[in-house]
């Protein structure tokens, strides 16, 4: 996490990278009781929650951990398993289930939606590449490839694995 240390409560947080870590962090932050907390999630891929691991469309590419161990929430370990059951994507008799990674990507993508944070303006999703982060008067400034920039109190780098240039 990067940002200028000051006495301001960090109400605005930018997360650079909308893979699994970025999406799960956003979901956790938005569960905060602080009604003023705002999160901006920046992802250069077309879809949030995929990253390298969960962008595969092949159903044979399954998670290496059973669904019971893949919840996004440590305080709700059955969250992903219930999500599968509710959608008819698994039955209780099938446990343990090693779900396709593409299905897990759907689960991750839906996490912010479930919090209704987009509608209330607490979550902003930006599909763009982040080029740089620099200190600003209020904290940090993130420059985007489209020539615009965003300021916030704090920024989190969740850019994950190195990728080949040009890979989407
Ligand atoms: C093939 C494979 C299979 C895996 N299978 C499993 C599994 O079954 N179970 C498990 O628990 N873990 C698995 N993992 C580990 C998995 O990678 C991590 O659990 C998790 O996906 C890492 O998430 P991340 O958000 O840290 O990184 P990533 O998923 O790499 O996400 C980083 C995101 O940041 C974005 N980004 C990077 N730079 C910028 C920028 N400058 N501007 C905007 N966006 C940017 C990228 O586009 C990407 O979407 C697997 C990993 C791989 C490679």
UniProtKB/TrEMBL annotation:
UniProt xrefs under Pfam families: NAD_binding_9
Give the UniProt keywords, A-Z: Membrane, Transmembrane, Transmembrane helix
**What SUPFAM superfamilies does UniProt report for this protein, alphabetically?**
FAD/NAD(P)-binding domain (SSF51905)
Q: Where is the FAD-dependent urate hydroxylase HpyO/Asp monooxygenase CreE-like FAD/NAD(P)-binding domain?
A: 14-161
Transmembrane ranges, per UniProt, are 12-30
Keyword hit for Glycosyltransferase:
no
Q: Which domain of life is it from?
A: Bacteria
Q: What name does this protein carry?
A: FAD-NAD(P)-binding protein
């Amino acid at each position: 996490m990067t940002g200028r240390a000051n006495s301001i409560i960090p109400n605005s947080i930018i997360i650079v990278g909308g893979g699994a870590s970025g999406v799960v962090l956003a979901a956790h932050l938005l569960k905060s009781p602080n009604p003023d907390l705002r999160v901006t999630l920046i992802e250069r891929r077309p879809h949030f929650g995929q990253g390298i691991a969960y962008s595969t469309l092949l159903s044979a590419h399954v998670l290496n951990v059973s669904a019971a161990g893949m919840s996004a929430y440590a305080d709700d370990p059955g969250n992903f398993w219930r999500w599968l059951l509710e959608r008819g994507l698994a039955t209780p008799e099938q446990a343990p289930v090693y779900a396709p990674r593409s299905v897990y990507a759907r689960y991750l993508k839906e996490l912010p939606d479930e919090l209704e944070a987009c509608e209330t303006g607490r979550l902003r999703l930006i599909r763009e590449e982040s080029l740089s982060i620099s200190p600003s008067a209020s904290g940090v400034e993130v420059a985007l490839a489209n020539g615009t920039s965003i300021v916030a109190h704090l920024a989190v780098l969740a850019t994950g694995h190195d990728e080949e240039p040009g890979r989407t």
